[in-house]
Amino acid sequence: MGGRPVSYPATSADSWKLAEPHASQAQGMIVSGYNHLPVSQTLFLEFDWDSSTSGGAWLKALEGIAPVTAADGKKDPSVGLGITATGLIKMGVEESVMAGFSAPFLEGMFQVDRMRRLNDRVGTEWSSCVREGGPLWSANTPPPQVHDTSGLMSTLPRRDDTSITTPITVDAMLILFCKDSREGRTWSDRVTEVLARCGVKVVRHRETNLEFDKHDMVREHFGFGDGLSQPIPWDPKAIEGAGRAPDHVNGIALGDILLGHVDGHHETTVGPMVTRGSTHLDDPDDPDNLDLGLNGSYLVVRELWQDVAGFWNNAAEVERELGLDSEARKERPGTWVAERIIGRAMSGDVLRPGGVADRYDPKAPANDFLFFDDDFRGLGCPLGSHMRRGNPRDGLATKASQKDSLLASSNRHRFLRRGRKFGPRIADPMVDDGAERGLIFLIVNADIERQFEFVQQVWMMSPSFGTLFDETDPLIGPGSRFTIGAEPVRRRADIANFTKLAGGEYFFLPSLPAIKWLSEL
Amino acid sequence: MSPCQEHVLRSGPGKFKQWVIGRLRAALPAIFALLRAVWPIAKIGKTHLVSLHDDVREVMLTDCAFEVPYGTKLKVLMEGQTVFVGMRDSPGYRSQLDRLQSLARKGDMERLAAAAQERAEEIVSAAEGELEVVDTLFRTVTFDVLEEYFGVTPPREGDMRVWSTRMFEYQFLASDKSLKDEILQLAPSLLRHIEDIIQGRLANGDDSEDDYLGRALAKQRENAQDWDDLFIRTMLSALMIGGPPQPPMVLPQAIEQLLRRPGALATAHEAATKGDEELVFGHIFEALRFDPISPILPRKATRDYIIAEGTRRAHKVSKGDTVVVAIQSAMSDPRRIPAPKEFIPTRQHWEYMHFGLGLHECFGRHINRAIFPAICMPLLRRKNLRRAEGPGGHLSFKGLFPAELKVRFDR
Amino acid sequence: MRLRTRSIALEVRPSHKAKLVGILVNLRGGRSRGREGEPGYYPDVLARLPTCHFLSLCVFESADYDPTLVIEANYDGDSGPFWACLQHLVGDELREALRCCKRPLDHSGKLYDSITEPGSRRDPAPFLECHVMRPKAFFHGNRGMPRDRILAEASLANAVQDRLGNGEAGRDKTAEELREGLRTELMPKFPWLAEKPKPRIPLGETALDWLKLAAALFLFLHLCLVPGAVIAGLIGDGKHALLLGAASVAMWAVFNKFRKPLEGVSTTRPGLLLSRLVSNAHIVLAVLAALFLFSWPIVAAGNVLALDLEWSAAWKNSARQLGWGIGWLMLFILPGLLVWMRYLERHDSSQEAPQTDPVMLRQMVELEDWIPQNHMASVVSLRPNIPRRLVAYVGTLLIHLALRAAVRDGYLGSMRTIHCAHWAFINNGSRMLFLSNFDLSWEAYFDDFIEKAHEGVTAIWGGSVGFPPTTMLIEDGAAHGRAFKRWARHSMSPTRFWVSAYPDLTVDQIERNNRIANGLCARRLSPKAANAWAGDL
Hints:
heterotrimer, A: 521 residues, alpha+beta, two-stranded antiparallel sheet, 14 helices, 22% helix, 20% strand, C: alpha+beta, Alpha-Beta Plaits, 4-stranded antiparallel β-sheet, 55% helix
């Protein structure tokens, strides 16, 4: 790739624009990370209305106080909205309409097979990546009812409950983005009050934020740059100024993050078609009808709690075990190991044998690096590091001839990351202060199975990633060994888990016309 | 050679005949291979020789069409009483077998193995580096431990080893006149001897249940009808005839096969040293696959039957015909047995047919399973086990019975 | 020892389907001690099937045909002993399962009767052997690796990892010192390290693979030369040139008109097949030259015999005939075949939303993803028209031979996740059976197909009913991701019983273990080779 300039500043996700009419239909949070609105109020809602309230009433009420923001320009403040499948059903969306949504969305994140795939729960035990006692919130989607006349279902090796219930039920999620915390809180109080009148309870509230450091970088609680690598969507029809071809390193099809457009597998997702002003499915060819999916997307939300002191102390301990503590270092103890767990240096630059990757833009870490040519054996950025597992780029190729195909194939599984952290910054990362802190991990993708679930199952949690054996992601995995490339021979550490899942769900991120339709229900 | 060896085995056939038997034994694998390839079910007169693994299994498992031809001779030995060994599948057969099996107790096999190993160790350590194994080791130990286990003490007059061995020979191998004459004398002696033991035990009120006899007498106290004296003595007599003569026949053949295969002998030695009796047993059984106690077993057709029906070699057998199943051939049929020419001591159970198969699978298989490795382990543990010099260093036969094998070892 | 892949397909009496499924499921239920319910891990089964790599039993269910029992076995070495082992493991269940099947109408009916009659004690293995199918195409990811070697090398690799620990001890050594140290330490436990590793694919096998491919290609192309050669015998060169010129111009014109994909079908750069042909022109020319050279003596001999020519005249005459034959082949026949194919492609229907029975889907999903490997079983009907069938039969064979000859390292395109997969034709070649044992999830497997190997997959499956629309045999088709996945899911049935001999190992890991073992077997390695070796640790 040589001296190609950086495609765009990695910390800014606002550099591509949807063309009309899509821009005024899609939600703003799809195209923007809202870096200009660093504080946000994340409200998890449960629908608890009586039969006299119509399913769309709360959306109408919301229109007055927190209208969902479109993707057609910077706005202050802004609003994002996601609704779960159970939420849609409670709102009165008919079964035939629901059938047009994707299976994982309908089944929910805590369906028994899905939990096994995502490694949240295998068998009867929650995995150690989950908060003790299980997650606190989800949509509590009832298990899919299969009408089995053959009696064959009962022959399956079912070892555990087919459904789990979390203490908190979440039907929808509302994110209010503002410039500062006080403004946000006042606003969220008012929203809570308005929603309560429509029978919608705020069952969980997190203030989340993007904190920019002096280098304009967002850091999560462990101290590493977050959201540094984002894909660049490409679509000649729906993206303004799309080039002739997608970006070589980070380009993906727009359809991978926005429904109704051509996706990475050359298909256009069509959502359920409904008649405007009615709740029914209708003639798919009628131009007046509404494709509920068009310009909408799916949002994967996972609330992750981080034990910062645990992480750093473990890293320091591992460093001692590896015999590295004697080496004079300026950094915090554990930094060497922690950087390798992530795959990037504290500065945000990707690790390379003997240092970090060069920057093309002195202000921001490079994001158009690849692995095959520069770090094939993982001597810099370990093969199993969080970043390499999350997006292996061309690093899974074993021969030069496979580089392009592997890179293209990796990119079919990428998604936009819109996560923000919550909780106070820790004063001393080596000392636990008992405070709850973490990340509302939030991603936008159009095909949950091919994107989020694939990455989680096949890359992050797979004990067989690449040629690694019996180890999982060192950051979010259940705690396992971790191979750090070195010459002549790799180092190996046992890394424990300090990131726990405390709740999660799949949400539908409706387009503005879809919200309008839903509010009429 | 111990003095009593002389009369345990009858004097064998002439030198030439013995040589022919030896050659024939050695040529069997080749003969069977040829038969399997060109004439898998050979018919000569009213006798059918079955040599493929599949067909051998079929005949042995189909007891409703093929019975064992042991009944008539057994009646002679038992003074007219029937014994399950020669019976067809019937309630009477099941009842006899169940009753006899009920005498075995948990822990018997461990006890038996321990006793056999202890006795064998005594003999081997007394041997000062050279040992004749057929009689001195195998026959002695087998008879000692089994007599004790069954509760049949040696007679004051006569020799149990001779009685059993002769009667075994008559039952399964030969029927010449001189042997038959001898049997007419020996059979009643054995029966009377056992009856005496039973009466003795009853008379002196011995109610110990350490051996089969004691346990049978205990059963008799509960259920006199099923366990009358006649039944007890018939069963004990059958056990004595069918059981103890066998290990002294097969174990020398196994040791001979091991001596021919230094690699196998080395791994057997290793297994014995580690005390891995399962692996030692594996070595013995595998060695026997190359020279089994009986390469063939006879069956008699009780009705018309088509062997291998539905295949190109389908073969009709008429009622009353004799069917001979070549178990040695079946155990080295490459169509079913993986790498039959290789010595693999970890083969699966089903690859062997030493104990027969189906209804008449050897009653003593558990006993043999326990005592085979136990008897051999003290010998195999010895370092540098090798043939003795001279003709005694190779296994010699009298008729079909192993007669002598001398080995040397470092003490 | 060669890895064999075989399957057996038997039609089931519809009334006995539930019973049969029960029998197969119980095979699993009773044997999952330790890791309750996890498909794919049965230590006792594996101990008693010592040569088995993968074994699966499933019952296909479809609205289009009666249930079908399929037994798939991948094993080392001879077949007879394998079936014997299987029958001794689950003989009674097999007999019971056969009783649920239809009595075959062919010669094996009698054998079926004698095995399934009440009280029968006949072994079921001979009957199974009557119905064993050799796959039309198969693929092995770790070619030349017997099961014992895979397991031995895995345990060696584990031992190496244990010795290395956290790697601190190796810090001050060179890679070669490290390797020598490990070799000495591990030699007592792994005495085979002293031996030279056996070549994975013997030279003879390689030669045979290429020979088979060449022979099949030759036969096929040689037949294609016949029309040109015949015409050359009938008319003079001048007229012939005119005829061929006119015919080929017309054919190429038609071909050019139709070669582009239809609206909504195109997924990739169109013209893939043509561009492949052009970029591999040297190979095409070499093949034609070889074709000419090998056909020459055959045709010349034909001339001598049929036309009673002298040999000298025959050589000349046959060269002329072959020249025209090749001309017709390249200028008319091949584009003609492609036009025919394009005609079919433009008129074939493909199924966008095949219905997958929700009960079946649920069962498949519940059975998947317990170990890092998965199994898939699929049956599809072939399109009925002759060219499609021909492509399916001949194409599958040629693809198989080509893969066998050219792929030595387990890579299909750039994917290497398949342990053992095979295609076989059932029901007189009207349905295609696909069975695969692969790494990672089903979704990942199909994403690989879609992203890395869609041309090959399209070539093999393109002739199946309902397959997504294709262009020029290998284009588009499987590249329609969601449609292809839906189509594939719809063709699948849940695998009722499945065992893997090395459930934790992926194809890549087996290869890595092999490199580690081979490196340790060597007496000495150059510093460069030793470094590369250490990189695998």
